Amino acid sequence: PPSASAQEWACVRQCERARAREWRSESARARKEVKMVLAELGTKISGALRNMSNVTVFDDEVLDTCLKDIATALLQADINIKLVKRLRDNVKKAVHLEDMAAGLNKRKIIEKAVFSELCSMLDPGTEPYQLKKGKSNVVMFVGLQGNGKTTTCTKYAYANKRKGYRPAMICADTFRAGAFDQLKQNCTKAGIPFYGSYTETDPAAIAAAGVKRFREEKYDLIIVDTSGRHKQEDALFEEMREIEDAVEPDCIVFVIDGSVGQAAFDQAQAFKKTVPVGAVIVTKLDGHAKGGGALSAVAATDSPIIFIGTGEHIDEFEIFHAKSFVSRLLGFGDWTGFMDKINDVIPDGQQPELIEKLQGGTFSMRILYEQYANIMKMGPMGQIMQMIPGMNQMGGIPQGAEQAGQQKMKGFMTIMD
Predict the structure, then answer these.
(1) CA angle 124, 160, 250 (to 5 degrees)
(2) Rounded mean pLDDT of the chain?
(3) How far is CA 181 from CA 25, 150, 198, 362, 373, in A?
(4) pTM
(5) Looking at the DSSP assignment, which residues form a beta bridge with residue 309?
(6) Closest Cα partner for 317 from 370, 253, 266?
(7) pLDDT at residue number 396
């Protein structure tokens, strides 16, 4: 109130700051808890496989115990019981303990069979659309409201920008209040051009005008963000068809929240029957125990999963390969993905030059600065550590240490500048 003294105002501000600190600490604790969800699934499966190392005699009883533990872990992750049963049956068919020679490592054979079945559960075997440089690739995003579609569009654009594409984004969501403002804010933060309208109410007209403009400006990745819709909303599904006819996209990406679990199957099927969905992105996998169910359910629709969202930040976005994902989940690491990350941040032309300098005993502040910059480009260190075999079982990077490490590197780079 106007009559409040300066001392009272200072007391109010102090209380507000205390509440803000408390809220931030609670949010940090919540993020730490939810990020353990998928890691917990991997720990349970790898634990069931590791328990076999203490067994001296392998027989059907040992195999059944191992498969029972794995099945329990998968069911707790909301994976469909039919898929779990099929995995058990297929592993039993692939592993014939009685027919194996005495010198064979039966534990490794069982591990390989389980790994193979987990991969086939998450991989529909269909290839997604590959972006082509030199042409305007139009990618249209569809999905349910509240599944993180606009944020995912920005992450997708940013991920491809780092690969050398020139992305641009169009807001064709006229249904949700504040949709254009959110997209504008995300694009400004990521340094990506955008198009939208506060006055035009026809999303198909906005999408067509935006695509025309960005094609003329020679952008090679044009992303169209549409309104969120449910499979029972016929009017919004008809609108989705109109936007598709207006922009003629090269690929339609369906965005689904990982927390819906097995229900992802029905939603993915409904969208696929309406428009030709070419790829799927599963979001919020860090925040719910049903993430495994969503991944397996989407794969059951024969739609390839291309990315998974693993956090709220723009760089917490991973390319999805079934083999790499299962390998990291079980703590086997992912050396292929690790080398791809290095090749992304250090171009092939610079690698021999760097090796030659190091072999010649030359290590300047400029080289150190460049290596710090390359490490920052690789993304969250927690994701990188998961690619190294055995790091999953060690508990990963302690809470707060990752951000503190990045701040230190930024500080060193500022001093060197």
Answers:
(1) 60
(2) 78
(3) 28, 11, 9, 50, 31
(4) 0.73
(5) 317
(6) 253
(7) 55
